[in-house]
Automatic annotation (TrEMBL):
Pfam families recorded: adh_short_C2 (PF13561)
Presence of keyword Chloroplast: no
Organism: Alsobacter sp. KACC 23698
Keyword Hydrolase included in the entry's annotation: no
Phylogenetic placement of the source organism: Bacteria, Pseudomonadati, Pseudomonadota, Alphaproteobacteria, Hyphomicrobiales
Family: Belongs to the short-chain dehydrogenases/reductases (SDR) family.
Name of the protein in its database record: Short-chain dehydrogenase/reductase
Keywords annotated in UniProt: NAD, Oxidoreductase
SUPFAM superfamilies attached to this UniProt entry: NAD(P)-binding Rossmann-fold domains
Gene Ontology molecular functions: oxidoreductase activity
InterPro entries to which the protein is assigned, alphabetical: NAD(P)-bd_dom_sf, SDR_DHRS6-like, SDR_fam
Length: 255
């Protein structure tokens, strides 16, 4: 199926690994030019090199998107985007009594305020052109909150509300915003969270695989599965999708 994405410019945050890199690969394979934004320069170089076989135009931006001035630099350098994929963010696990407010503020600066600010920066140009798509990769904890991930669950719920509010208004400007909520996906992030939960439950982080038992289909989600959903929903084939949040959890919320 031709997704009619050839020639589109896609800006992807948190693009040096995991779901972000998978999104970059999928969009590049669809004929898009891609901008990879992340903090780690070495990983960015490796990610860009991994896309060389796609034939796509690839650019990189190194910066800390938890900082407003770096978000503004990204938008100034690569403002003419057809599609923005907000994906950067790594909110730690833990209960309310485990995390001090500095951790909350730092984590939300990157994921919650980062998504909101970048959406604002790119939406202006999209509104002027009368076209564009913003994809928010959020997380299933916003739909099914747990105490041991309260900081992330609360931030994710806020971003779901943000997506609905903006995505409900933006079609009047020719722009779509939607979100994807991945459940546990095969990334380094999943291991980190599972270790934190194993430490809290068993006092032994080495038991982290126990936290991944009884998964739907007996496995983690593959990053490519999230990337494929993002590309399909961002394409004209799904041109009526805005304001919605797709839960990709294998039905886990209903188990």
């Amino acid at each position: 199926m031709d997704l009619q994405l050839k020639g589109k410019r896609v800006v992807i945050t948190g693009a040096s690994m995991g779901i972000g890199l998978a999104c970059a690969t999928t969009f590049a394979q669809e004929g898009c030019s891609v901008v990879l934004a992340a903090r780690n320069e070495a990983r960015l170089k490796d990610a860009a090199a991994s896309l060389s076989g796609t034939g796509a135009e690839v650019a990189t931006f190194r910066g800390d998107l938890g900082l407003a001035e770096h978000r503004e630099r990204l938008a100034a350098a690569f403002g003419e985007a057809d599609i923005l994929v907000n994906n950067a963010g790594a909110i730690p696990g833990g209960g309310l009594l485990d995390l001090d407010m500095g951790v909350w503020e730092q984590a939300w600066a990157l994921k919650v305020m980062g998504y909101i600010h970048l959406s604002q920066l790119y939406l202006r140009g999209m509104k002027e052109r009368g076209s564009g798509v913003i994809v928010n990769i959020i997380g299933s904890a916003g739909r099914s909150p747990r105490y041991d991930y309260v900081c992330g669950a609360t931030g994710n719920a806020a971003l779901m509300a943000f997506t609905g509010a903006v995505g409900g208004a933006s079609p009047a400007w020719g722009v779509r915003m939607f979100a994807i909520n991945p459940a546990m996906t095969r990334t380094d992030r999943s291991v980190t969270l599972s270790k934190a939960r194993a430490q809290e439950r068993y006092g032994d982080e080495s038991r982290w695989p126990d936290m991944l038992a009884n998964l739907p289909f007996g496995r983690l989600i593959e990053p490519d599965e999230i990337a494929n959903a993002a590309a399909f929903l961002a394409s004209p084939a799904c041109g009526y999708v805005s304001g919605a949040t797709l839960d990709v959890d294998g039905g886990g919320a209903f188990r």
